Amino acid sequence: MPENQDLNNDNNLRNLLVIDDEPEIVKALSRQFRRTYNVFSSTNAEEAFHILENEHIQVVISDQRMPGMNGVEFFERIKHKYPDALKLILTGYSDIEAVIGAINEGQVFRYVTKPWNPEELNIIIKEAFEKHELITNNRKLMQQLQDANETLEHKVQERTKELEKANQKLIELNSEKNRYIGMVAHDLRNPIGVAESFSALLIEDLHVIDKNTEREYLGHINKSCNFSLDLIHNFLNVSKIEASVFDVNLQAVDYVSFVKEAIKQEQIFARNKEQQIVFSTSIDELTIQIDRNKMQQVLNNLLSNAVKYSMPNTLISVSVEMNDNDVLTSITDQGQGIPANELGQLFTPFHTTSVKPTGKEKSTGLGLSIVKKIIEAHGGKIWAESEVGVGSVFYFTIGIA
Fold first, then answer.
1. Among 15, 58, 62, which residue's Cα sits nearest to residue 43?
2. In this model, does residue 263 exceed pLDDT 80?
3. I need a labelling partner for 39 at 20 to 30 A (CA). Which of 28, 137, 202, 251 fits?
4. β-sheet bridge partners, residue 84
5. What is residue 9's predicted lDDT score, i.e. its pLDDT?
6. pLDDT tens digits, one per residue of 4-35
7. Alpha helix locations (H) across 245-291?
8. DSSP states of 147-215
């Protein structure tokens, strides 16, 4: 226990240890400092070790001449374990040389000769506590600085990784953009060339060609222009999707009626190839939240593909059923079928299979990739099954929750 009880709170952490084998000296020092510091006292080294282990001592003042272990030897023993404790030696003139050596080695802060001057000793002890406080505060500041540097370094590393990742993504997107632009430019060259050729023929031979030939030329021009517009429209959709600005505007729609209307519109093109589209469902009415325009794009694409890649006089079947908490839509054709090794790339932008349209229709290779993104934006999935020479089935789900 400290040998004083009437300290203010500010001094509760200022602990002074006094060591001397003469009890009267210990009492004198304790009386001198007990109103200013928490004073712990000991008359031997072993007891002093015990106090240091159990109390946070900032300043130690020890007699140089003690039996068994002198002050310099005691401080040598504790300098590594308690490096921040400020150490002072009480010594006579005969021991000055040994004490000065200890000071030079950094083991002792100051020495005080016996008999000491109380006012001088007060100043020395005060300076010792101030130095200890300075050392402690510096160490805390250094630790805070080190922690801040480590935190900053960690944040810099994280940010660098994020920037590297973002930069890599930009490189990939730029590469993909260039690839898309190259493909679009390549695919646009042919229809624009066709339109240009037939328009040149019209201009050159307008005064001699008959109405049927004129209508034929205009039909080719119109068909080429429509294909070009579709390609540009699909390319813009892909660009929006890749730039993550692809939004869906959900509204309540009677899905069964919606699918029937899409089939009705596609029947016109199916009849041109003497094909029939049939619809089946066990659901009378089902209202779900969808983006009407984008889902119209999905059905138009899948139905037109079924028409495009199926032979004349074949059947296309559309089915809508419940599958757990999803609506499952399937479109089955009796077309040529898709080779198994090409199914994995079916929904990749600009990918076209080796299967060719049966009516010389054109394909941009973008439709199915856009369809996949639209379905996924609705929280659903799309996949295909196919067998060469038998036909294909395209399935997609939409959640109703």
1. 62
2. yes
3. 137
4. none
5. 41
6. 444 444 445 799 999 999 999 999 999 999 99
7. 255-272
8. HHHHHHHHHHHHHHHHHHHHHHHHHHHHHHHHHHHHHHHHHHHHHHHHHHHHHHHHHHHTTT--HHHHH
pLDDT band for 234, please (50, 70, 90 cuts): low
9-116 and 165-242 share one fold: no
Question: CATH topology for 9-116?
Answer: Rossmann fold (3.40.50)
| C-alpha span between 336 and 168 (Å, rounded) | 41
Nearest CA to 132 among 106, 113, 109? 109
Amino acid code (one letter) for 266: E
Measured in degrees and rounded to the nearest 5, phi and psi for residue 163 equal: -65, -40
With beta carbons less than 8 A apart as the criterion, state whether 39 and 30 touch: yes
Judge whether residue 240 has pLDDT over 60: no
Please tell me whether the peptide bond between 67 and the residue prior to it is cis, using omega within 30 degrees of 0. no
Beta bridge partners of 316: 277
| 165-242 carries CATH number 3.40.50.300 | no
Structure tokens at 243: 């730039």
**Alpha-carbon span 229 to 366, nearest angstrom:** 13
**What is the pLDDT at residue 383?**
94
Tokens encoding 257: 């009626």
Give me the torsion for CA of 227, 233, 234, 236, rounded to 10°: 150
Mean pLDDT is lowest, of 17-26, 73-82, 186-195, for 186-195
Residue 118 host element (H or E)? helix 118-205
Domain boundaries, the chain: 9-116, 165-242, 251-399
Contact 22, 66 (CB under 8 A): no
**pTM more than 0.90:** no
